[in-house]
Amino acid sequence: MYRFLYRLAHLDLYQEPRTVRYGLALLFVVEALALNSLPPAGSKLPFIFFFGAVALSAHLCGFGPAVMATVLSGVLSKFFFIPPLFSLIPTAGGLGQILVFMLVSLIITSAALQTSVAQIAAAESQSRLADALKSITEGFITINADWNITYVNPAGAQLFGLTPEQMTGHNVWEIAPSISETSSYQSLQKAIREQKPVHFESYYEPLKRWYRMAAFPGPRGLTVIFQDISEARQTAEALRLSERRLQFAQVVAKLGSWEWNLRTNEIWWTDVIWTLHGRPIGSMQPTFENWITFIHPEDRGRCQQAVEESLAGPGDYEVEYRTIWPDGTVRWIVARGQVLFDEAQRAERMLGICIDTTERKQAEDALRKSEKLAAAGRLAATI
User: Model's pTM, two decimal places?
Assistant: First the structure.
């Protein structure tokens, strides 16, 4: 009986036709009349069950049916339970009782209507929230203080390879027992223990997937939002390996690459740029001014002029210069680059490479010396 009344109190019949709502209110009044005819109600408590009929009519059917139930309840109470019985002509005392009933019923109607409006607003808000959670691609799960799952959206269940029905009501550690052996367990326990949000990444071995997770503690447990980042991590790992291969290839080839953002004046270059100029990696901030200090003093003016001409001209840049290592060794570097322009033909970025050409320069010098010696020998033989 209690469950029936609870479900009845949470019904929403406001969208039903008028005949249904008024008919249900009439049924409530008839039921109240039947119950009021039983002892110990009757003339001693003539309105006791009619109050319930009015409250249910207001809560379920609306204002109009509640007014009808109030008026009809007053008439039936007078006719059957207030002396003189079976008469609609009230005495002064009976009229006072009826007026009090009407007033209390009006108060009950107002309170019931306010409760219904609040429940309808709450139900609509919950419905919108549920629709939103169903549409997002991130997993959303709520866990109570006993680590039982109270809600999980379809995306969250799918990320675990299950359905919401298979997860709701079950313990987290039963659904995913392997989590208790990972750092995720400590992170979730920390969120509960310290009552502070935590953010972390976790690998779920059964599905061979990586997840980015955020846990938000509350008075009723945890709210966890998680996202599958396996593809992003695979892409990042592939990019990292590619960069390592590129770095290795550049080291072997004695070739360094660089990029200059002309709008922010920020410069990025690979580690090989440091080694080509005989400097420890990361020994100073990569800037145009610091790069100039790497260049032999006799070649700096020529290099600066080449950069300025490429920025003002077609954008191609090539210059060969000497660099002096801290131990006094002189090395030759060829720098090649290209300027990138925006839609307004303003210089935006400059990309380039630096190549160590010392061995080639030394070979050329040796070849020239050899040719000079050969020419001198031929001249001597001729003489």
Answer: 0.40
